[in-house]
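## retry 2 of 3
previous attempt timed out at serialization; input unchanged, resubmitting
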Amino acid sequence: MNPLTPEVLNWLTTCGWSPNRDIGGRADELIQIRLKAAERFGVTLVPTPAAVRAIRSYGELRLAHPTDRESAWIMNPVFGYVGDAVSIKELAVELGTELFPVGSEALEDGILLADERGRFFQLHHTGGYYMGENESDAFSRFLNGTALLDAEDFFV
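## retry succeeded, writing output
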């Protein structure tokens, strides 16, 4: 994991996170729930190391934006909608990597995803978007209101 900036550290702490936070077995339960939901649609999702790390560290937190409390990341991988596993897998194929859900975006229910390289993406009803090179970058971009980039720019 890349080091978190002081701004991100302060924000995460305000949201209930601490550097040694680990929800342990609960993370494994949440991952299994998501895997079984995908299997019902004939899709195999792979929990990427970055996704597992994010779920263990931030799982079950509501990471609200400091200036807009309605805008938040809900860090729970079980959020989804019917058939989303197919869309996640399609985006993963286009990116040439595995993707696994780590949470959702509160305003428009976009699904937050982490890939094998640690990059963060969002699956939104309007398409796929790049959120950051790693969790630290994604958090900083969220806090600073940096526009999401089209995931197509990262297709292989």
